[in-house]
Specification:
The complex is a heterodimer of chains A (620) and B (68). By secondary structure, chain A is α+β, with helices and mostly antiparallel strands. In chain A, 57% of the residues lie in helices and 10% in strands. Chain A has helices at 6-18, 31-56, 62-72, 81-111, 123-142, 165-191, 200-227, 235-254, 258-262, 271-291, 295-317, 328-342, 346-372, 382-408, 414-436, 555-559, 569-598; strands at residues 29-30, 155-158, 161-163, 445-450, 453-454, 457-458, 461-466, 476-482, 488-491, 493-494, 500-501, 506-507, 513-520, 523-530, 547-551. Chain B is mainly alpha-helical and 68 residues long. The longest helix of chain B is centred in the middle third of the chain and has 35 residues, at 17-51. The radius of gyration of chain B is 23 Å and the shape is rod-shaped. Classes of the chains: A alpha+beta (620), B mainly alpha (68). At the A-B interface, α1, β1, α2, α5 and β2 of A face β1 and α1 of B.
Chain lengths: 620, 68
């Protein structure tokens, strides 16, 4: 087991250092990083606690003045300062975290694991961003002083302190995300340093950030309720403000696709259409109805700007990998068109939008994947992918419709709302459960012949599968090399004689991890071609012999060599259940918050909801 | 306690879950802790006042509803 005292840590450090070549540590952090981080943490805590206390006791006007400036300027003008300031802070934090996240994933793909939490520079923006989300929530809770009850739905903290629901939810979402860090550490200690985005605790880090946009929308609603019809936010400002928020929501719901964006999915391909459809249907339904006409298009525009910007910063600018985006414009146009006929019946709109996104949208994404994604969709996954997308689209559409109705204060009665939410969650569970289940081809082997090797790179590979039926009509059949400083995904092409060949030279030396990946139907597997020795894990070198025959094995055994062997299955299940329960708690808390603020009826200054007539009835 | 000599060129790695991740979540835990303490103290004080016969019944809305 792992050493659990400072002395043991030092001893272990010395022992690790005794190895002739300094291995990449598998768990642990350099002490100077700890010192820096602890100092930073102390300062952050002090700022939040002392700042909040000084504001609430009238000892400082700094926060009040800052909030007031957001009431007078910017798109939030007219909304209370406890809405404007935290919303801006949260948006900046979210973008920071997003940048860090894509940068971090990119580094992990090309370099492998880190030496401790701060060894990787990309962790800083993630940390700052997630803490910023939490701090923004606390700010929204702390800002409204006694004489200004933040709307009728506000939550009582003390007898003379009420906090907006949106603020509590925002802090909760940030807290949930931050909770991912200690749990992630526990997770890695039990299961090893698996490098996958879809690790349960990693999903907490990114999910908390993504879902915080719901909290921001609730906060906006409360600001309106508090102002009781006299906000000075002009229709244009409201449009921009909400449009950006929904663009952010689309980004937040799309981060779960990141493994596909880079071309290294560790789950079956049918998961991608589901994830895309769910994100598009949910965020764009809300965007179209809550923002207004062309709101879905606006949200996609914002998505492309920010998410595309992040891809450009991480890719060409920082010299890391480029992350592709799905073609959400198609879904946006579908939803805009649908709104022309169905915007008045919101629930029906949500369901039909989901069906459209899951069918026509799926077809558009199918075409887009051929040109944009490293791993295009194929006839092999077409049928199941379509069902997946339908499930995702309808689940997302229902959730989006409920959210809009809540934000408008027009939710159907609780029994109906709750049943619909439950139905949506069940669809999600079915789709995710199906996508996560896979088989490994039994008794299959790959016969690989290397072309001439120069400077550690094989000019070509020739592959023959036994039995050949393993790759009848594969969804992917690639040589993938990563963690050698870059990523290399090469789709094999048939050579005509029953064998397959690469189209580019393949690295088979140094730190590279090179493998053959095969996925057809429900079957997924990998074949080791070259893996470096890894002393920290006790893993031996797997050499790339000129001609080799190796079995198709579960990809986890190769992609996640860092995984500790011999961990009982029930422990993994228990760990997943804990994370799932926390996630469900966050989702239900957000739904509760939307419902709580919905009780107070339509707010007096919302946009007229109907699709045909978007004039806003705001009074200046 | 025990000083272990550290050879030159060696980087010590802390290997303890609390040390590793505390800087990430401790501030949030502390702030949430303080908030909870404030809530509990206020509720307790109110109960005491109610028991003392003073009608301290102004707002009764959303007691203890907390998502964090």
């Amino acid at each position: 087991m792992v050493a659990h005292s400072p002395v043991a840590a030092v001893v272990q450090g010395v022992l690790q250092a005794a190895a002739p070549v300094e291995p990449k540590a598998a768990g642990g952090a350099a002490l100077d990083q700890i010192a820096i981080a602890t100092g930073g943490a102390a300062v952050l805590t002090a700022v939040l606690l002392i700042g909040g206390w000084a504001h609430r006791t009238g000892r400082t006007q700094v926060l009040a003045k800052a909030a007031a400036s957001f009431e007078r300027y910017r798109p939030t003008r007219g909304l209370p300062g406890w809405v404007g300031l935290p919303t801006y802070a949260a948006m900046v934090s979210l973008i920071t975290a997003l940048l860090g996240m894509y940068w971090d994933i990119s580094l992990h793909i090309s370099q492998g694991r880190d030496e401790g939490p701060l060894a990787n520079i990309a962790h800083y923006p993630i940390l700052i961003g997630l803490f910023g989300i939490f701090a923004s929530g606390v700010l929204a809770m702390v800002l409204p002083l006694g004489r200004e009850k933040p709307g009728p739905a506000a939550i009582r903290i003390t007898r003379d302190w009420y906090a907006p629901v949106g603020g509590v939810l925002l802090a909760g979402a940030g807290f949930y995300a931050l909770l991912g860090f200690p749990l992630d550490d526990v997770w890695h200690r039990i299961f090893g340093q698996d490098v996958t985005l879809w690790g349960p605790t990693h999903l907490m880090l990114i999910g908390g950030a993504g879902l915080s946009l719901v909290a921001l929308a609730v906060l906006d609603r409360e600001g309106r309720l508090a102002r009781g019809g006299s906000t000075g936010q002009t229709p244009t400002r409201q449009y921009l403000y909400r449009g950006m928020m929904m663009g952010g929501f689309l980004i937040g719901l799309s981060v779960f696709q990141a493994e596909w964006d880079f071309g290294v999915p560790q789950f079956r391909m049918v998961h991608q259409p589901y994830l895309i459809a769910a994100a598009a249907a949910c965020a764009l339904v809300v965007a179209r109805l809550w923002v207004g006409r062309y709101g879905a298009l606006f949200a996609v525009g914002f998505y492309l700007l920010v998410r595309g910007g992040v891809a450009v910063v991480v890719g060409p600018a920082l010299g890391e990998l480029f992350a592709t985006v799905p073609f959400y414009l198609g879904e946006a146009v579908l939803i805009e068109l649908l709104a022309l006929v169905l915007a008045r019946r919101v629930l029906a709109f949500g369901v039909v939008a989901g069906v459209l996104v899951g069918t026509v949208g799926f077809a558009i994404q199918y075409a887009w994947s051929q040109v944009a994604f490293p791993l295009p969709w194929t006839p092999d996954m077409l049928g199941e992918g379509l069902v997946s997308a339908l499930l995702g689209g309808v689940a997302g559409g229902i959730a989006g419709a409920l959210m809009v109705l809540g934000l408008w204060g027009r939710l159907p009665r609780p029994a109906v709302s709750r049943s619909l939410l439950a139905a949506s969650l069940v669809l999600v569970a079915v789709a995710v459960g199906n996508a996560l289940s896979y088989t490994v081809p039994q008794g299959a082997n790959a016969q690989v012949t290397l072309g001439p090797v120069r400077d550690g790179t094989a000019e070509s590979l020739s592959v023959r599968m036994d039995p050949p039926s393993v790759v009848d009509e594969p969804t992917w059949f690639t040589v993938t090399a990563w963690q050698g400083g870059d990523l290399h995904v090469d789709r094999l092409v048939p050579a005509g004689d029953g064998s397959w060949r690469t189209t580019e030279p393949v690295p088979v030396s140094g730190d590279w991890k090179t493998l053959l990946r095969v996925h057809e139907g429900r079957a997924m597997g990998g074949v080791e071609i070259y893996l470096p020795a890894d002393p920290a894990l006790g893993a031996a070198l797997v050499p790339a012999d000129p001609s080799l025959i190796r079995p198709v094995i579960p990809e986890h055994d190769i992609l996640q060599r860092e995984l500790k062997p011999g961990v009982p299955v029930w422990l993994f299940t228990a760990g997943s259940v804990v994370v799932l329960a926390l996630t469900l708690a966050l989702v239900l808390a957000l739904a509760w918050g939307v419902g709580r603020t919905a009780r107070y009826g339509p707010d007096p200054v919302r946009s007229v909801s109907a699709g045909d007539d978007e004039r806003t009835v705001a009074q200046a | 306690m025990t000083a272990v000599p550290v050879p030159a060129g060696v980087r010590l790695l802390a290997d303890h879950s609390i040390i590793d991740t505390a800087p990430f979540f401790l501030p949030a835990f502390l702030v949430v802790g303080v908030l909870v303490a404030i809530v509990v103290r206020d509720r307790r004080r109110q109960r005491r006042e109610d028991e003392a016969g003073q009608a301290g019944q102004e707002h009764g809305d959303g007691e203890g509803d907390r998502a964090a």
